[in-house]
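Let us work through a complete example step by step.
Step 1: write down the sequence.
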Amino acid sequence: MSRHDWTRFDAMTEEERHAAALADPDAQPLTDEDLARMKPVPRVSIIRRALRLTQEEFSRRFRIPLGTLRDWEQGRKEPDAATRAYLVVIARNPTAVAEALAPAA
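Step 2: predict the structure and record it as tokens.
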């Protein structure tokens, strides 16, 4: 059960909802300048979930320290540029990365 009374919201038109959102000083839309300053960061949690791996499995398979992985997923730290590139490679071809990191036969 929701703690909020949504009756007022439900009674608003889409235009009224949009105007109310824009009137909220804490929820202003990003400007083009804001977007230009932002660095695209691969979302490791999305990559990991897409591969259906636990944090422990992802950490072990791709040789990323578990604590580091958790810091990224919880937003305490961001991957550096080289790691962001590594995450893109994992996202695009996880099998090749896992095979490259596997012990030699």
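Step 3: interpret the result. The helical segments are 7-11, 14-23, 32-37, 44-50, 55-62, 66-73, 81-92, 94-101.
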